[in-house]
Amino acid sequence: MRLAFRNRAQLLHPLLFFGIVTTLFPLALSPEASRLRDVAPGVLWVAALLSSLLAIEFLFRDDAQDGTLEQYALSGQSLTWLLFAKTVSHWLLAGLPLALMSPVAAYGLGVPVGAVPGIVASVALGTVALSLLGAVTAGLTIGIRRGGALLSLLTLPLAVPLLIFGAQATARAIAGTGIAGPMYFLAAFTVLGITLAPLAAAAAVRISLE
Amino acid sequence: MDWTWFHRFGSPPHLYRLAGTLVPWFAWPAAILLAAGLYGGLVLAPPDYQQGDGFRIIYVHAPSAWLSLMAYSTMAVAAALGLIWRMKVAHAVAASCAPIGAWFTVAALVTGMLWGKPMWGTYWAWDPRLTAELVLLFLYLGYMGLRAAIEDPQRADRASAVLAIVGVVNVPIVHYSVEWWNSIHQAPSVMKFGKPSISWPMLSPLLIMFVGFTLFFAALVLVRVRGEILRRERQSRWVAEVVAQ
Q: Would the CB atoms of B159 and A185 count as touching at under 8 Å?
């Protein structure tokens, strides 16, 4: 984690990407506040999804290149736990800042301030599940040159439920109604991801390292 | 318990020959049932009182949609077998299922769109079932893309197997999440408990088509598996003997 801090640009790029994508929508649609508020949940979540994808690409890349992943696999420690720890620190560096930045982007889209806690909570929870899912697909695409497009093709279809319930939670937060329902779903996916994804990611990394 | 029969499935030459003998047993009944089902569905079945003759596309649409899911489950089960017992031929089966399943998915989407234009007034609506089917198509494409991107065949087998299994966990989730999202697709009329809600003269050709399509799928998979095994084992002696014959 500390190593990742040294490479600040890599950390900042997905965040900047998130900011720019949300700026593009008012330019492309119309700067009317009422209209922007209607599309805000979708815009926020699609932008969050795409910028997390950018971050996921870096999840294992450097470690695979300099052989750290191989050391993990040979270390005698459980690869599952190591990758889980890696994914958690990845989320702290990529998912959490995204969640913290989402109110700024949301405010820019004309979202009322009262919706902020709901939006932050849903983005934070959704990116946990997304990081876990990304660990599996990133593990599969280790060592494939120019695997970025392929990584998106693998990750995005599997992320559809997150998008649906995340955008739903955001929309409800904006409308001021209870967000508990979609949040429970997001939480359920996250729990499922925590239990299964590290196992699948470890299997994927082992295969890719052969 | 004697497991030799199971291990024999794992032997490429054995499966190659077995698939060869089984192909006609699936292909001919499939051809007969498809012909009978099409005749029954397109000629004998009465027109629908609301949709006229337009409903008849269901005789292709519903079996294709069924097989798009069936092919995915077959692929995932084969992939799991290959991953757990390291059976080379199971990976060959999984690899053979993917393109067939993808085409059935395309068939289900296209026939649904053709039907949707006169009935719903649009080719495409962001309806849950349509969306879920489209996501399934992307999963197939991702699976084939991953397989094509990895050069080492054994690594490609095992990596895509992990993906197929992760996908199988996710497919029901995707399915239900879009289901709750919004809906205009009619409720299923065949696959439900109790009495089906369509009349017998319309239903019977559909059931025949279901069986016919499934057999057709099995025959296609067997043919592809034979090709796949030959391609994978092209260095070995028994392939040279088979080709020389």
A: no
- CA A190 – CA B69 distance, rounded (Å): 25
C-beta separation of B45 from B56 below 8 A = yes
Judge residue A34's burial from the number of C-beta atoms within 10 Å of its C-beta, 0-12 exposed, 13-18 middle, 19 or more buried. Answer: exposed
Residue B190: pLDDT band (50, 70, 90) is very low
Angle, nearest 10°, between helix axes A180-209 and A116-140? 20
DSSP H or E run through A168: helix A160-175
Measured between beta carbons, the chain B residues lying within 8 angstroms of A203 are: 83, 162
Selection from B100, B118, B104, B120 nearest residue B60 by Cα:
B104
Count of residues making up chain A: 210
- How far apart CA A132 and CA A127 sit, in angstroms, is 8
Model confidence pLDDT, tens digit, residues A45-72: 888 888 888 888 777 777 777 777 777 7
In B138-173, which positions are buried (b, 16+ CB within 10 angstroms) versus exposed (e)?
A: bbbbbbbbbbebbeeeeebbbbbbbbbbbbbebbeb
Neighbours of A4 (CB within 10 A): 16
Please give the distance of CA A187 from its chain centroid, rounded to a whole number: 14
The ranges assigned to domains in chain B are: 31-188+197-244
A window 147-176, beta carbon within 8 A of B: 147, 150, 153-154, 156-158, 160-161, 164-165, 168
The verdict on a CB contact (< 8 Å) between B181 and A164 is yes
Count how many residues are written for chain B. 245
The residue in chain A having the minimum alpha-carbon distance to the alpha carbon of residue B140 is A154
The answer to whether A200 contacts B166, with C-beta atoms less than 8 Å apart, is yes
Contact B205, B41 (CB under 8 A): yes
ipTM of the complex model: 0.71
